[in-house]
Amino acid sequence: MRRRSLAATLAFAFGATTLAVFALVGSFLYLALDRQIKAQDDLDIVLAARHARRLAQELETSKGILEHGDRLTSTVFGDAAMSMEVFGPGGHQVLGHNLANTFATPLAASETNASSATSGASETHEIVAGDPNEASEASVASEASEASESSEASGVATTAALPRLTRIPASARITEADIADWSGRNGAPIRGILADASLRDGEVASLLVARNMSDRWLLLDRYRDKLQIAGAAGVLLAMLLSYLLIRTAMRPLREIAASASNVTVNRLNTRIAVARVPHELEALVASLNAMLERVDHGFQSLSRFTADLAHDMRTPLSNMRGAAEVALARPRSTDEYEALLASNLEECDRLSRMIENVLFLARAEHPQFVKHMREFDAAQELTRIAEYFEGIADDAHVSLRVTGAARLTADLELFRRAVSNLLANAIRYTPQGGEIVLDAAGSGGEVRVTVSNQGQPIAREHLERIFDRFYRIDPSRSSLPSSGLSQGSTGSTGLGLAIVRTIMELHGGSVHAESDARSTRFILTFRRV
């Protein structure tokens, strides 16, 4: 299965985001333009209707509508989409302007049904209801019906042919809220106002100012199409540019990958070096280099450990082989053969302790190493360990002393092993007549167990390295007799202090050494739980 490209995925995501932004912005612009156009057209309609009403109110009678028709229709001159119709007191059309392009086209008699006539009578009643010169509602209705029938027969438009519009009384102010929408005979959108105007003789004429919105619809449709084309082109361009930019921006990652491919088993000291790394990738490069540093350090430590282990195991094997070859060179006595077997047994014990310690270190480094934590009296355990080593200390003419008091929580067996290794190491390097002090003290959130001994101070450059595996300050120093050490001690295998550090790491503590002319001190620091 082909893996998807990160650059292509980001480019598509950026393109989708751009499309959403373009859609929102385009919709906002389209609606804003639509509102602006409607607002401007509505204002033109209202102003034209107001001006036409003022002119009509100056007329003496309805006959003046035709005489001053040019003045009335002048309010819509100059705009081919604007039209005006003036209906007389009887509801029939008296004057019309620019009706061919608007709804205000006279309807044929065949297109007007009986219900239109009835509706026209009702509308005509609204027109003349406020006329004081009418005798009664019945005579008005009769006159309206006659006018409607006459207009139907002659093909002249009447208010009966108009859609149901809200007529604005002559005394009411004409506002944009009074504008209505309807459809023309050819389906064209129309917006207009139907308003009454009182003539000076008291008669009421009706003015219909309308605008054909087809050109506006066409303008908005073209504007919408251009927005869609521009949006689609913008999205494609954004996706292409974003893909190229992302590819360029990801170039340092490709350089990091190429640099990392140069790291091999034989070149673990190689580090990732990328020129002009972006700020966001500096942490990644630093982390990778730190990881390579740890891998290199671990590999070097493993190599040294393997070499040291092979060297230390070769020594007892060589001793056993050499002693056996010497013994077989000529006949020996029974005592000499027994001495040879005892020497070989001592070397076997040394190998056994070395293998056991190596296995312990291997198990201790496993994440699932099990510890049995418990609380105990540190000073009491130090006393027991000192009693156990008392015979060995007497043979070395060294005295042991336990001081202090503290309680701590740790794995008791591991604690005993760590202190035993330190004590065995101290006995080994303490001169005859010297004293070794084991001390336990608690302060704050820590418990410090110290094993100090007199003797030659350790140089500063060795204080940290003495905890490395198989590291010895003076390899020529001999070890204690194997028969005098406990199973947990290490003799001279070079792993005793390494085991101590591993045990302290398992407990989340630390171990360090201090040395001066007075004494050498190994300090175990446990955290209180």
UniProtKB/TrEMBL annotation:
Q: Which UniProt keywords apply?
A: ATP-binding, Cell inner membrane, Cell membrane, Kinase, Membrane, Nucleotide-binding, Phosphoprotein, Transferase, Transmembrane, Transmembrane helix, Two-component regulatory system
Which EC numbers does the record give? Answer: 2.7.13.3
GO annotations of cellular component type: plasma membrane
Is Transferase among the key words of this record?
yes
Q: Which reaction does it catalyse?
A: ATP + protein L-histidine = ADP + protein N-phospho-L-histidine
**Pfam families registered for this protein in UniProt:** HAMP, HATPase_c, HisKA
Q: Where in the cell is it found?
A: Cell inner membrane; Membrane
Mode of membrane association: Multi-pass membrane protein
Stretches the record annotates as Disordered: 132-158
Tell me where in this chain the Histidine kinase domain is found.
308-529
Annotated ranges, domain HAMP: 247-300
> Which top-level enzyme class is recorded in the Swiss-Prot or TrEMBL entry?
transferase
| Chief location category | membrane
User: What residue spans carry the Low complexity bias annotation?
Assistant: 135-158
The UniProt transmembrane annotation reads 227-246
| An example Gene Ontology molecular-function term | phosphorelay sensor kinase activity
Q: Which NCBIfam families match?
A: cztS_silS_copS
What functional role does this protein have? Member of a two-component regulatory system.
Matching entries from PANTHER family are given as: SENSOR HISTIDINE KINASE CUSS, SENSOR HISTIDINE KINASE YKOH
Q: What is this protein called?
A: Sensor protein
Which organism was this protein described from? Paraburkholderia lacunae
Q: What is the lineage of its organism?
A: Bacteria, Pseudomonadati, Pseudomonadota, Betaproteobacteria, Burkholderiales
